[in-house]
Amino acid sequence: MSESGQEHSDRHKYEFRKVIEELKEYRGSGTQLVTIYVPPDRLTSDVVAHVTQEHSEASNIKSKDTRTSVQDALKSIKDRLKYYDTKPPENGMVLFSGAIDTGGGRSEMITRVLESPPQPIESFRYHCDSEFLTEPLEEMLADKGLFGLIVLDRREANVGWLRGKRVEPVKSASSLVPGKQRKGGQSAQRFARLRLEAIDNFYQEVAGMANDLFVPERHEIDGILVGGPSPTKDEFLDGDYLHHELQDHVLGKFDVSYTDESGLSDLVDAASEVLAEREMLQDKQIMEEFFEQLHEGDRATYGFEQTRENLMMGAVDRLLISEDLRKDVVVYDCNGRTEYTFIDTTDDTPTHECENGTVVEGEREDAIDHLIELAEQRGSETIFVSTDFEKGEQLLNAFGGVAGILRYSTGV
C-alpha cells in the first residue's frame, strides 16, 4: 500500500473506531436497538422493503415501550435511506438506530449511518437487541495485511487471499496424477516416469494459478503462505515453480491436512504465529527507528507540544500516534495568540490563564484529528502504532502517545 493510501486508511479506520467506541457504550432498556448491515451490491429499494416489513412485524411485540421504540428506530432508518439512490456507497454502509438509556428512566433516540467501511460488507444483516451490533466492524478495523494462500497435495489445490482476517478462495484445480504405482519391470518404470511428469504438470498448473493471482498484486502483497502435506509443499517450493518475483514473498510452508477450500482456513490457523509477527513488523521497525534517532541521532521528537511545534514547522516526516491514545486538545484564544492544553477525553474543559493574566474559556477537539490535520497540511505521513508490543506500549506510556521522526534536526 502506498504511503498516502496507508495514511488515508489509518485515518479512515480511526474515525470509524471513534464512532464504534461510542456505539458500544449505548444500551437500550429492551431489545430495541436496530443495526442493519448493507452490502455494496444491495439495492436500496430492497433495504427499504425489508425495513418496511420489519416495521409491520414489530407491531406484534408485546411490550408497548419496546414496540414503539423499534418502530421509531425503523422509521428513522427508512427516512435516512431516502438520501441514497439505487445502491449504497462504496463498500456498503451500516445503519444504527434506537432509543438509548440516558439515566433516570429517560431515553434518547439516536440514528447513525457509517458509510464506506474499511472493508466491503459481505452480506445483508438485520439485528435487533439491547446493544448495537458492532463486532463485524471491529473485525474490519483489526484487519491488516494482504497475504496469498496456496494449499496443495498431489490430488488438488486451492489458491486464494487472506485479507485481514477474511479468507477468500479464488481458484482451484484437480490433478490427473495416478494414485498407485504398478508393479513389474519396464512397465513400472514407465508408469513412475509418467507419474512424475503428471506431478510436474500439476505443480506448473498450480503455480500458474498463483502467478496469475499474485503477480499483479506483488507490490501490495505482504507475504505468501504455502500449505499441504509433506513432501508435496516441499517439492512445490523447492522446484521453483512460482514466479521469481513471488519467491521472496513466501513466509513459510505449513503442514495442512486438507487442500480443499477449508484447507485455506487451516493454513491461516497453522501460520498464526508468523502472521502475528508480520502484522507487528512495520510498527516494530518504525519504533526501532524512532528509538535509534532518540538515543543516537537528532531527528526524533515526542510529546504533544514538541511534536505539534515540529509539525507546524513542516519538520516531521512521519507522525507516530498510539492506537490507544484518547486525548483532546483545548484551544485558547489569548488576544490573537493561540495556546493549547492536552487533556484526557474524560476530563472537564479547564479554563486557561493567558500571559497577560486574562482567564479564557477554551474549545476542545480530538487530539488525533488535530494532529492529523496538521500532518496532512504539511505532507507528513501519519502512522498508528499498536500497543501489543513493548516499544509500542512505551510510545503510549512513556512518550504520551505522540512522537515523530523528523526530516531534519530542529533542536525543538
Descriptive notes:
With 412 residues, the protein is an alpha+beta fold. The protein has helices at 3-25, 44-57, 64-81, 135-142, 185-214, 232-238, 244-247, 261-270, 272-296, 304-312, 367-377, 390-397; strands spanning 33-38, 93-103, 106-115, 125-129, 146-152, 156-163, 166-174, 223-228, 250-255, 300-302, 316-322, 327-334, 337-344, 352-353, 359-360, 363-366, 381-385, 402-406. The strands form five sheets. A five-stranded mixed β-sheet has the order 7-6-5-8-9, sandwiched between helices. A hairpin with a 3-residue loop joins β5 and β6. The longest helix is centred in the middle third of the chain and has 30 residues, at 185-214. Residues 1-8 have low confidence and may be disordered.
Key structural traits:
3 domains; Translation, Eukaryotic Peptide Chain Release Factor Subunit 1, Chain A; 5-stranded mixed sheet; 18 strands; 60s Ribosomal Protein L30, Chain: A; alpha+beta; 12 helices; 4-stranded antiparallel sheet; 412 residues; disordered N terminus; Nucleotidyltransferase, domain 5
